[in-house]
Amino acid sequence: MLSSDAAQKFNPARADEYRAQSRIALAGYDACHELAACMLAAVVGPGTSAHVLVVGAGGGAQEIITAGALEPAWRFTAVDPSQPMMDIAIAQLQQHSLLGRTDIHLGYVDDLPNVRHFAAATLIGVLHHLPGDAAKRHILHSIAARLMPGAPLILAGNRYAYADQPILLAAWGERWRMQKNTPDEVQAKLGNILQGADPPASEEAVAALLAAAGFERPTWFFSSLFWGACLAKRASNEGAPPSSVIDKDGGPEMGLPPSWRQ
Ligand SMILES: C[S@@+](CC[C@H](N)C(=O)[O-])C[C@H]1O[C@@H](n2cnc3c(N)ncnc32)[C@H](O)[C@@H]1O
């Protein structure tokens, strides 16, 4: 499966039920987003005017709604390749009067100018949908290339191979049974969620992916069954870019010091 197929999974039917289903699939969905905003403010500094890159913002733009309420001077760039998921995000941003503070990009991080422009970034609920380590490293590289040195990334998603954790998997099913789903409905929900997903095998595997993309060691701050959330800072070394793979459109950017170009 290509990473573009990861976006196709989020079709109109899945998008329609996303805001409700995500809060069942992830116990503590809202707490995770609230803590992610708190972690970013703790590192970027409260009361600042940061520009935050929100990758995979579709489905409700909860990252922007939560961080935007905490930090009234922050601006956002929302990136997502799925039209139905982005449509829901735009409607939510409108409802929360945040659309004026958000640049919408229907597409991929690679499409954005290759400049270290953002003071922070989030990648929530995306990485485990990307198949294989190469696609995971690529998106992390692309984000790193657009972050200022030392800027934080919130990375959240499932970790652990599902088949290696039968108790977590069974408990996940119980989560739907708790919502009055029948055994057949529980199996259908789990099948839908597991289809095409490829989580990193461990927190060490997540740390290795981050390190390969030029991030420092992560600080974990939230865990819920398979789900884990961490913050990792973009390494502030001003040396060579971590990989030429991110340099597909990287011509010289006028006005930036050479060490900020990639
Ligand atoms: C599970 S949803 C998470 C949405 C949101 N971040 C949240 O916390 O509720 C995953 C989103 O990632 C998007 N996505 C898939 N592949 C992507 C990619 N390569 N780059 C950016 N977003 C992607 C999907 O379209 C979908 O909207």
Describe the secondary-structure layout.
Elements: H1 3-8, H2 12-25, H3 29-44, E1 51-55, H4 62-70, E2 75-80, H5 83-95, E3 102-106, E4 120-124, H6 132-144, E5 152-158, H7 166-177, H8 183-194, H9 203-212, E6 219-224, E7 227-233
Parallel strand pairs: 1-2, 1-4, 2-3, 4-5
Antiparallel strand pairs: 5-7, 6-7
The structure holds S-adenosylmethionine (SAM).
Describe the structure.
- The protein is α/β, with parallel strands linked by helices.
- The protein has one domain: Rossmann fold, CATH 3.40.50.150.
- The protein is 40% helix and 16% strand.
- It has nine helices and seven strands; from the N terminus they run αααβαβαββαβαααββ.
- It has a seven-stranded mixed sheet with strand order 3-2-1-4-5-7-6, with helices on one face.
- Strand 4, helix 6 and strand 5 form a beta-alpha-beta unit.
- The longest helix is centred in the first third of the chain and has 16 residues.
- The radius of gyration is 18 Å and the shape is globular.
- The C terminus is likely disordered.
- The structure holds S-adenosylmethionine (SAM).
- The site of S-adenosylmethionine has 23 residues, from helix 1 and strand 2.
Unreliable stretches (pLDDT < 50, length at least 5) are 239-262
> How would you sum up the global shape?
globular
Order of helices and strands: HHHEHEHEEHEHHHEE
Strand coverage percent = 15-25%
Biggest sheet descriptor = 7 strands, mixed
**CATH topology call:** Rossmann fold
Domain count = 1
CATH-derived architecture: 3-Layer(aba) Sandwich
CATH class, anyone?
A: Alpha Beta
Distance between the termini: 28 Å
Side-by-side strand order of the widest sheet: 3-2-1-4-5-7-6
